[in-house]
Amino acid sequence: RVLFRSFFKKNNLVEDISTNMLKDYAVRPPNVAWLFSKIVKGEEAEQVQKILSEQSCDPSEDKTVPVVLIFNEIILTKELEVGMSRYGEPIKRLTPEAIAERKKAEEEKRLAKMKAASGVIWSDDDLIALQKAIAKYPGGTIDRWRKMAQMLHDKFSEEEVLTKTKELDAQLRNGGHHVQGPQVPVSSVTPSASAPAADPSEEEWSPEQQKNLENGLREMKDYKEKDKFQKVAKYVTGKTAKQCFDRFKFLCSINKKK
User: Fold this and answer.
1) CB 231 within 8 Å of CB 220
2) Among 50, 169, 187, 252, which residue carries the largest CB count within 10 Å?
3) pLDDT the model gives residue 27
4) What is the pLDDT of residues 48-95, one digit of tens each?
5) Predicted pLDDT of residue 214
């Protein structure tokens, strides 16, 4: 544990805050401590060390740090492996086979991102799958972009799915001209009448902002004062307390309809 903390500290990748939020630019000591409290075999610790040592510690263009993102994936996988979140909450435990499959998928995802680094290419089949995902997960769906990316077998990142969805939406608003690839029949992509209405501010919430809102709500779940959403908003870059509160109310209304 000390070795890994020193590794991140040496590379200026430690955010010395005593909460368990996962950030994409630095690690927090409680997450390092939690992970290595769950690793019982020296071989596993060595494997984690090897994986992290192979990753870049330099920020990408979007300010995320590859080694931190990999560390976060290891944390999330370990949660599913032990059936307990880093917050101490019980979650559904995956079988060893499912864990192995998840790790394989994560590796394929990382390789796919590397191959796509020079430019994102959407095939006709990808566009058909995206249109179906848009219909299955309409605006306002919790973790919408993550679920859509998973439906596309994680071939594209959440941000890439968001960008392409906006692009298709803009083209359709302009009369459907210049939409790349084959079109799926309207009946097959139109949300059912029971699907939740789109959040009017959906396009203004990035996947990262949605995740940060959920993390902020989790961190402040026991806080009952009137300034709760002012504190929640501090977790969400670019959003005010009112926007966070309105988004929270909208998501609550969606959950009630399910």
Assistant:
1) yes
2) 169
3) 92
4) 888 888 788 888 877 888 889 889 988 988 898 889 899 888 888 888
5) 85
Q: How many other β-carbons are positioned within 10 Å of the β-carbon of residue 223?
A: 12
Flag residues of the chain having pLDDT under 50: 117-118, 175-203, 258
Query: How far is the first Cα of the chain from the last one, in angstroms, to the nearest whole number?
Result: 43
Separation CA 199–CA 35 (nearest Å): 37
Per-residue tokens: 107: 């590796």
205: Cβ contacts below 8 Å, ≥ 6 apart: 199, 213, 239, 247
Distance CA 229, CA 245 (A): 6
Closest CA to 112 of 24, 209, 104: 104
**CA atoms in the 13 A half-sphere facing the CB of 200:** 3
- Beta carbons of 36 and 43 less than 8 angstroms apart: no
CA distance 233 to 244: 6
Interacting residues of 188 by C-beta distance below 8 A, sequence separation 6+: 132, 135
Among 30, 108, 251, residue whose Cα is nearest residue 22: 30
Q: How far, in Å, are 147, 237, 249, 253 from residue 197 at the CA level?
A: 17, 25, 13, 10
